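Re: the request from the purification team.
They wanted to know what the chain is likely to look like in 3D before they choose a buffer screen. I agreed to run a prediction and write the result into the notebook, where they can find it.
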Amino acid sequence: MPRLVLCLLVLVLAACAAPAPKPESGAPLILISIDGFRADFFDRGLTPNLKALASDGVRAQAMRPAFPTLTFPNHYTLVTGLYPDHHGIVNNRFSDPASGKKFVYKDASITSDPSWWGGEPIWVGVERQGKHAATMFWPGSDVAIGGVRPEHWMPFDGKMSSSARVDQVLAWLDLPVAQRPDLVTLYFDVVDHAGHDHSPDSREVNDAIVTVDRALGRLLDGLRQRGMLDKTNIIVVSDHGQVATEKGAYVILDDIVDVRDLRIENMGLLSTFAAEPGHEAAVEKALLAPHDHMRCWKKGETPARLHYGGNPRIPPLLCLADPGWLIWTREFVNRPGFFVSKGEHGYDNADPHMSALFVASGPAFKRGLVVPEFDNVDVYPLLTRLLGIRPAPNDGNPATSEQMLR
């Protein structure tokens, strides 16, 4: 048996055989994501409810998202503790060479196929170990991963207001105690949309931040009215930050390489390619040379800190734009209706503009603690500890959360 396969088998068997840990408290856990909430948005003075949670609990100076700093890869990393290279959601759009299928994050008819989703998300572990889970939207939560869905879930509806999402969470928490979910996820997307449409420094983003904070206040009030606020662990995260983009800040591939020699899978801030057969040497020589506002690598030669480049779903060549820049072909830029968002993400996860949020409060957490930046793969071991379930094999470090807990 190959050594790698044997090691993975040992990990799986160890995870199955280990006894479930004792929960950090008997409290339900609510995991909240504010899509696109950059770490320093916390300092804008627009989030009194979020600030109150942080003051009464733990806040990270920042949380480092996984690379690429995109919505679907990072939301799935948060709930599996696996880097995108390991769970298989390697981009918002990508192809699988084995099946020939293409993953498109906005197409539910595609994303509902469980074969895309590797690892074990937290709600599957909860259900398999005899507890109850409810998901108010989260990438992957409407998919029967390993044949298991959360006990309560809803298909994504982007038109559902932030306050309505909170009301559904409270309705689930009103279930009889024996049926009440031990884990609830809650997802807000208005900050991310405002950043794309108007830039992260816009009034519209500030308005969206206020909207989400009011929804958070609605949740806290609802918990307080039910006598549950002091008995509930709440973790608020984001998947990535945002950076402003400007028209004309483009790397044009035609100026670097003969684009007829490329099979392009993605363009934009993270562009991925394969060379047409017979043109590999010329394409690699052109792309791998130094370029202004862009770095390129062969698959498997990306910086080790990115933990990215080993999955079969990643094409042979990757080019990453500098923050705020984008990579296009001239034909694409000149097409009718060409549009560029005013804010973007997906860049190098070491860039502060990509930094994410982490705030946690509840009976399991210390009060008034600020911790250094940590990797978002470390959230999953914390979730399993709070819930008292056995973790699936993951890339997270359980020691990260030790300092946070009472």
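For the purification team: Residues 1-18 have pLDDT under 50 and may be disordered.
Please add any questions underneath this entry.
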